[in-house]
Amino acid sequence: MGLAVGMRIALVGLAVSLTLAGCQRSGDDRNKADTQPPAAATNLTEIEMSSPTLARVLQRGHLLCGVHEGLVGFAYTDNKGNWRGFDVDFCRATAAALFGDPDAVRFVPLTAAQRFQYLSEGRVDVLWRNTSWTMSRDSSGELTFAGINYYDGQGFLVRRSLNLSSATELNGARVCVHANSTNELNAEDFFRTRQIEVRPVILPTEEEARQTYLREGCDALTGDVSALAAARSLMTDPRQHVLLPEVISKEALGPVVRAGDERWANVIRWVLNALISAEELGLTQDSVMRIKEGEGSADVQRLLGYEGEFGPRLGLSREWARDAVAASGNYGEIFERNIGRQSALGLERGLNAQWNAPESGLIYGLPIR
Prior knowledge:
Order of helices and strands: HHHHEEEHEHEHEEEEHEHEHEEEHHHHH
Radius of gyration: 22 Å
Largest sheet: 5 strands, mixed
CATH topology of the largest domain: D-Maltodextrin-Binding Protein, domain 2
CATH architecture of the largest domain: 3-Layer(aba) Sandwich
Structural class: alpha/beta
Oligomer: single chain
CATH class of the largest domain: Alpha Beta
CATH superfamily of the largest domain: Periplasmic binding protein-like II
Strand order of the largest sheet: 10-9-11-8-12
Number of helices: 15
């Protein structure tokens, strides 16, 4: 662990200690605290009382972030072996909020079948991995969803040569879907209620479902529309494959943590909300560090840590949100860079537009106050 990171951890611990004690420090007191030798062990013990996960992450010196094992636009490695993507940027922003360093994160690629097991065993601290928020998962007592970072829905990808205009025309077709997912259940519901007979081709993983479709082992591939767009972008001639118009489900995707550690869930929840709020307030990756105390609205001042003790309440520094935005950009920047119209996926904002955008969506940052 580097000296700078170690000092930040100690100071975060000190902030939590004082917050729990109900103390308020003056600016002079904070400056003195920054120059005094830290009592890291004691402070980490105090953090552990309110959040064992946060204490473990701080003591380790980096975040363990569970991501997709390979989904273009969301989580994948480039030709240099560097992790890229929409979910990856949220991991980096979380690390920056914790340590002031977006590189203080280790990415753990997980299949759909592995993700919850790894989380429950503590082998990852958080899942930023296209995971649908459902009642059965939420009420299991094992998982806590910390928010929604992408509104998706399930669709169907077919070859243009089949000349299909609707999923209702798939009677008798072979439909590839991966097991252990909401996609399998949604497809079953869709076809059964419409009395459409299809031949499901159930594969263990998303990748095997995609490869089977490419080998023409099935006539249609079903999955989240974003995942289908990612799969199509990698095909030899993407124009020969079309998304049918039906969206048959609501898939609210978001970060997941282990149940029973609400303070850690709050850290993840408010990192997400900070990135969403930054877009609404016009704060970008380039501008966020240039805003000075007293500049901008009260909302801007609170987000950037110039007013209030919002970071210390979470067990973070006062600059947590500033560091998160500086690491990955605001929500809109993360979207456009990885999956938006300027990316290989070319997805519209749609439901993932800000609530107050000219073409409004469902993205809404909770107030920091």
